[in-house]
Amino acid sequence: MRNPRTRWAVGGVALLSLSLSACGGSGFDDTDKADGQASSGPASIKVLIAASGDAEKNAVTDAASAWATKSGNKATVTQAQNIDQQLGQGFASNNPPDVFYVDAGRFATYASAGSLEPYGDSFAGKDDFYPALRQAFTYKSKLYCIPKDFSTLGLQINTTAWAKAGLTDGDIPTTWGQLASVAKKLTTGKQVGLALGDTRDRIGAFMVQAGGWVTNKDATKVTADSPENLKALNFVKSLLADGSTKYPKQLDSGWSGEAFGKQKAAMTIEGNWIAGAMKSDYPGVKYKTVPLPAGPAGKGTLAFTQCWGIAAKSKHKAAAIDFVKAMTAKEAELTFAKAIGVMPSRQSASADYVAQFPQDKAFIDGAANAQAPVNVAKIDQVLADFDTGLQSLPDGDPKQILARLQKNAQAVVGQ
After folding, report:
1. Are 234 and 242 spatial neighbours (Cβ–Cβ below 8 Å)?
2. How would you class 223 by CB atoms within 10 Å of its CB: exposed for 0-12, middle for 13-18, buried for 19 or more?
3. pLDDT of 39 strictly over 60
4. For the chain, first and last CA: distance in Å?
5. What is the spatial distance between Cα 322 and Cα 149, in angstroms, rounded to a whole number?
6. What pTM was computed for the model?
């Protein structure tokens, strides 16, 4: 699997019964229809998801059934074959699903087109969701939708290779300099010190740690061609140049988690989805996850998240919002965490989550300094071009790569 962004499904985990008692709602949709006529009686809503596997599909279906039983409404859950394509078709035909997954990387495009209902600002308890996740789904100062879960990046360390190199817990890197040092010490003829993904979804973490990013916080100004971002790319280039760090393709791997699992690398930088891959494909490899080292500007990581989108043209908005309340209740989020390996988007669920999954503490702690994906409409091709530039970083010029990103991104932001 190449460069997974969100998570690996954890199979074979028994699902807990959802506790939806905290989720109110009459079960009737009294919101105006798209044609201006009021609907009455129980609502029947359509829910479109992009599940990572059967575990996720089953978890959402079971949760939807529990909500339907309690509310008197009905929810039909469909697993998308290609959610972007299916949503596009639904919006174009004025017949979209009522509720659906929206990836942070696509959110601004949908919001700018008027396809999403901006229900987030009036959502009860919205401040309980991590600020970085709320920012990911804010467009023109409006919180459109509620984040359903998230993932962050951490540093995975092969503990066997670590001990063999004479390293101890006191050597766990907390700075860029220390990361470079241990990467060299861990590099042998058979393995490299660090396997690093060759796109912004991994290298971008160094940009954040240097105090940079592609845009400013509210995505109104492009900040790609900055001294901070240049410092980050120059540091990554130095790791690649001395041979202590390699891209997955240099290690005959589709993604860095594969290189780590095959023990072609002693360390890697991945999200909490790596747990599922290691458990199923490389169960004999002993490892642990620690926070990413801090850069010149401090700690920083990346957040990957999705929200529960509601269609602007849904005829059942009240029922759809009540459904989202049920799906994002604390106990529901903890149930999803156990079933499919995601992290709860509610801050109030963090302590319970860490108690159940202490090995993931570094990931959940990363929420405090996480940067969500670029929140700009129709910027996909620009970011894909940036990834191409990063893939040529070993022999490329970081300043030129950033200058190209600046120019291309400005053209989109200025539209």
Report:
1. no
2. middle
3. no
4. 35
5. 17
6. 0.89
pLDDT exceeds cutoff 90 at 61: yes
Residue in the block written with tokens 């290609």: 82
- Greater confidence (14 vs 42) lies with 42
Number of residues written out for the chain: 415
Query: How is 74-136 classified by DSSP, letter by letter?
Result: EEEEEE-SSHHHHHHHHHHTT---SEEEEEHHHHHHHHHTT-B---GGGSTTGGGB-HHHHHH
C-alpha closest to that of 97 among 49, 134, 131: 49
Separation of alpha carbons 155 and 170, rounded Å:
15
CATH of the domain spanning 44-151+304-371? 3.40.190.10
Instruction: Look at the block and give the residue holding tokens 């159940």.
Output: 356
Q: List the structure tokens of 251.
A: 């290690």
- Identical fold for domains 44-151+304-371 and 153-302+377-413, yes or no, is yes
Give the tens place of pLDDT for each residue, 62-93.
999 999 999 999 999 999 999 999 999 999 99
Domain chopping of the chain, boundaries? 44-151+304-371, 153-302+377-413
CATH classification code of 153-302+377-413: 3.40.190.10
